[in-house]
Write a structure and sequence with these properties.
2,3-Dihydroxybiphenyl 1,2-Dioxygenase, domain 1; eight-stranded mixed sheet; about 35% strand; about 15% helix; alpha+beta
Length: about 300
């Protein structure tokens, strides 16, 4: 069993527009945009990162906004819900806040003993806010006070046709089965960075998900450094998983592999962090380009990347 996994690192999804995406995460959810860069493989598309003050592992939601992208079709083989941690007693405040901002799909729930607020993102993304005792320091710079502000991720909920092999993978990654409710089984790390929970919803008859705007592209797990990542990669390869070579993503090092249930997993290092090329006080303000794309700046800014107004 692996011992290097610290919890979630980030979750990356697809969107249909950069401005709407930015407004939702900064003005509605109150997160900080900690990086404005581009997709390494499609530099004409932004890669936007939102999190706490520094973009600490376990707090960061990231997006590839493809202008005008068609919405995905929900189904099996995907992350269906990304959940954030909020303080105890703050769910009703958030429900009113989301209504004020015209957010759709709002539903108060009690899931596995926790008060939960389900809602939709701009592209039909599945989100939830979960009341927890969480001492992580929130970002309050976008107007949501510390008594209510998001602390970081609580969990992701995968929707699978068959959960058996993925459950075994999670156990191998250090997660232990914690609880069940209906079709949902919860796995959790005994300790970690606070973003320690993975839920699996098993729906054998669900159609296969079709990726599009609003879909989660991949979910990333945190390891401290490259040495820990190398150990994880070797262990995954030894157990038969097809794992990519280590890829430099500027702000972390990444490896990827497809899970038995169809969800793409990444293992990302906590180093070097989002302040490697910007001061913490100005994170996310300027467009940062990977070195291989710096020569494209004028073309990208003039012809492809819509201005984002804060």
């Amino acid at each position: 069993m692996l011992t290097q996994i610290n919890g979630l690192h980030h979750v990356t999804s697809l969107a249909s527009g950069a401005q709407e995406n930015n407004n939702f995460f900064t003005k509605v959810l109150g997160l900080r945009r900690v990086k404005k860069t581009v997709n390494f493989d499609a530099p004409e598309v932004y890669h936007l990162y939102y999190g706490n003050e520094t973009g600490a592992p376990g707090t960061v939601m990231t997006y590839f906004p493809f202008p005008g992208a068609r919405r995905g079709r929900p189904g099996a083989g995907e992350v269906a819900v990304t959940a954030f941690a909020i303080p105890k007693g703050s769910r009703d405040w958030w429900a009113d806040h989301l209504v004020t901002h015209g957010v759709q799909g709002i539903d108060k729930q009690e899931t596995l003993g926790q008060a939960r607020l389900r809602f939709d993102g701009p592209d039909g993304d599945g989100f939830a806010l979960v009341e927890t005792e969480d001492d992580r320091t929130p970002w309050t710079g976008n107007g949501i006070d510390a008594d209510h502000a998001i602390r970081g991720f609580h969990s992701t909920q995968m929707r699978l046709a068959d959960s058996g092999a993925t459950s075994e993978l999670l156990r191998f990654m250090g997660y232990q089965q914690q609880d069940t409710q209906g079709d949902i089984t919860r796995f959790a790390l005994a300790s970690g960075n606070g973003a320690n929970v993975i839920d699996i919803e098993t729906l054998p008859n669900a159609p296969k998900a079709v990726e599009g705007a609003g879909s989660v592209h991949h979910v990333a797990f945190s390891v401290t450094d490259r040495a820990a990542q190398d150990d994880v990669r070797k262990a995954l390869l030894d157990t038969g998983h097809q794992v990519t070579p280590v890829i430099d993503r500027d702000y972390f090092w990444a490896i990827y592999f497809r899970t038995p249930g169809g969800v793409l997993f990444e293992v990302a290092t906590d180093e070097p962090g989002f302040d490697r090329d910007e001061d913490v006080s100005t994170l996310g303000q300027a467009l940062r380009l990977p070195s291989q794309h710096t020569h494209l700046r004028s073309v990208l800014e003039s012809n492809y990347l819509e201005p984002i107004h804060d």
